[in-house]
Write a structure and sequence with these properties.
Oligomer: single chain
Shape: elongated
Structural class: alpha+beta
Distance between the termini: 93 Å
Helix content: 40-55%
Number of strands: 18
Number of helices: 15
Largest sheet: 5 strands, antiparallel
Length: 591
Amino acid sequence: MNILRQRRGERTVSRWKLKWNSVFFKFSASFILVGLIPLFALSYFSVQTFTGHVERYTENNLRQMIMYMSLNINTAFKEYNETSKLMYRSENDIDQTHQVNVLGQINQIPIEAYLKTVLYSDPNIRSVYFVRSSDKQIYYQGKINQAFLPELLPLEQWMPVLDEEPKQLAIIPTHEETYFMKSQKSVITVGRNLIDTSGLLTHKPRVVGTLFFDIDPALFDQFYKELNLGEHDEIYIINNANQIFFSNTELQAWSETSDDVLVLSEEIPFLQGKVTVKVNKTSLFNQIGTTRDAVYIAIAICSLVLIIMGGWFSRRLAGPIRALTIQMTKVESGNLAANVTVRSNDEMGRLVHGFNRMVERLKSFIDEVYVAEIKQKQAELYALKSQIRPHYLYNTLEVIRMNAIHHDADEVGDMILSLSKQLKYVIDYGEDWVPLHKELQHLQDYFYIIDVRYEQRFELKITSTDNVNMDWQILKLSIQPIVENAIQHGLQPKGRGTVGITIEQQEDQLIVTVFDDGVGMDAETVERLHRALADPAKPTKSVGLKNVHERIRSACGEEYGLAISSRKHVGTSIQLRFPIKEDNYAASDLG
C-alpha cells in the first residue's frame, strides 16, 4: 500500500515538473502575473488617491459649512446687540433717569410699549424684561400666554455678569425658564444696562435699569440643520468658559473623543466662544467605503477573468503544439504519412499548415528527378518575375505621374518622375560603373525630392573644372549616400544650408568633393571616423560612409576611397578619390 502511494506521489511530482518545464505553463503564468501586478498596483493607487481626495473634499466642505454657521451666529448676536442699543436712540439728549424713574418711559415712550417693540423685532425673542434700578420693579412682555413669576427671575445670577462690564452686552448661556409656571423650555438671555448719559460722566456709570430678553435656542436649529449631520454626530456652541449655548445631545455635555471621530471647530468672536462639531468618520465617509468595496469587487472579478483567460489561452495554444509534436515524432521515425488537421487561420494554423506542406515537400524532394525539375521551374519563374516587376513598377509610376499632371499637380508629378528615375537607376542590373553625368543626374533627381520635402531650405551646387570629362566612369551610387549624410547630420540640425559638389582631375585620379556648411564635427569625432574607415572590422554608426569607402577600395584599390575633414560650427568636407576610367571595364583590369 505504501509503495502504491509512493508511486502515485512520484507520478504527481513528475506531472508538475512537466507542467513547470512547459513553455505554455510559463507563458500562462507570466501572462497572468503581467496582468495582475499592474492591475493590483493601479487599482490600489487609484483607490488610495480617490479616497484621499474625497476625504479631503468632504472634510473641507464640512469645515466651510461650520465656518458659515459661525459667521451667521456671530451676525445674529451682533443684531441682538444693536437691538439692545435701541434704548439709547432718542431724538433729544434726554435725562434717562427722569424718563425711567418718574415718567416710566424709555426713549419718550412707555416702557411696556418699548418692550413690545423689542419683543417683535425678531421672531426668536420669546420674552423681554426691564428691571428698574431705583425700586427693582420688573416690566415684562412675552409672546406666549404663560404665568410669569417675577420673584423667580434669577437676577442675583444675571446682575453680577453685567456689573463686571456695565457698558457691555451680557449673554447668559442656555438655561430653563424657571420663572414661568409649568415651563420646561430652555432659552438664552441677553442683557444690557441702560446708563444715563446726560450730564457729566462719572467713573462709575449711572445705571437706570437693565434690559433682558430671552432668545429661543431654535435660532441655532436652522444653522444646525444645514450641516446635515448624522445620528451619532455632535455639535456644541460654547463660550470661553466652556458654558454650552447649544448642543444636539440630550446630555448637553462633552463626550469623549476617539480616533474614529473628526473634530472641527470655528471661532465665534462675539460670543467669545466657538462652534465645535464632532463627526463620526465611519458615517461621514460611508460612501467612500461603498465605492472602495465596489472597486475591490471589480478587481476580484477582473483577476478571476484574467486567470480563466490565461488558462484557456494556454490550453488553446498548447493543444495544436502538442498534436504537432506527436506528428513530428512520427516523421522523425520515418513515417511521412503524418498529417495534422488545420483548425484555425491564426499563427498556429499557419504553423500546422507549414508543417503539413513541409512533409509533403519532403516526400517530393526524395525523388531526385522531380527535385531538379522543380529547381529549374523555380529559376525560370524568378527570372520572369525579375523582368516583370521593374516594368510593372515603372508603368505604375508613369500612370500616377500622368494622373497628377492631369489634375494640375505638377509638383507631385515631378516628384514621381524623379522617384521613377531613381528607382530605374537603382534597380537596373549589370552596372557597377556609370558615366559621371548619369550619376550626377541621379543625384539631382534625389535632391529634387529633398528640396520639396524640406521646403527649399537646402541648396545643391555642382561645379567641375574644364578638364573633367562627364563621360568618365564613376562607381554607381557613390555620391548620393554622401550627400544624404551631409543633409541628415550636417544641415538638418542647423535648419538650412548648402551642399556643394566639386569635380576635378588631379594627375590620374578623379576627385569628387562633397562639402556642406552645416554644424560640423569636432576633431575627436573626425579621428574616430578615420579609425573606423581604416579598420573594416571596426563597428561604426556611419554605415553609409563606411560602405562607400569599402566599395571604392574593393573596386579600385587601397589608394582610393574617402577622406574626411570637418570643423565644429563651420562644416564638413568629404573627398572621394576614383581612378580615371574612359569606358566601363571591370575593376579587376585596373593597372
